[in-house]
Prior knowledge:
- It is built from two helices and ten strands, in the order E-H-E-E-E-E-E-E-H-E-E-E.
- It is an alpha+beta fold.
- It has one domain: Roll (2,3-Dihydroxybiphenyl 1,2-Dioxygenase, domain 1).
- The chain is globular.
- The two termini are 17 Å apart.
Amino acid sequence: MKNIQPFHLAFPVDNLEAARKFYTEILQCPTGRSSEHWIDFNLFGHQIVAHLAPEEAGKTRTNQVDGDHVPVKHFGVILEWQQWEALAERLESLNIEFIIQPHIRFKGEVGEQATMFFLDPSGNALEFKSFKTMDQIFAH
């Protein structure tokens, strides 16, 4: 894969301090600029911004995907396989409640991938995944 540019994503939260604690302590994201209404985080080299908007936080619905109820609105990062395994182990050791437990999809097939879903304190769904072979991200 060629060099990928960092993305920017803004999302609503209902409590900035709870968001700060989760993203810095649980996901180990360094912070950038902030105000009383928002906080920048570095999520594996990508800029995500938690905006205080309690009326918009935590609203999601799910769709069936391979037998799982996947939150329609979600975000995350595709990690290297070993990074994904280390993050899954770390989250399990911190007793994070998963929406979808860490597991492998399409084992031994084209597009084999590891995935897991969990919520931040405001109910935003996050998915972290990895591909056994990174050049198969868009394979079908």
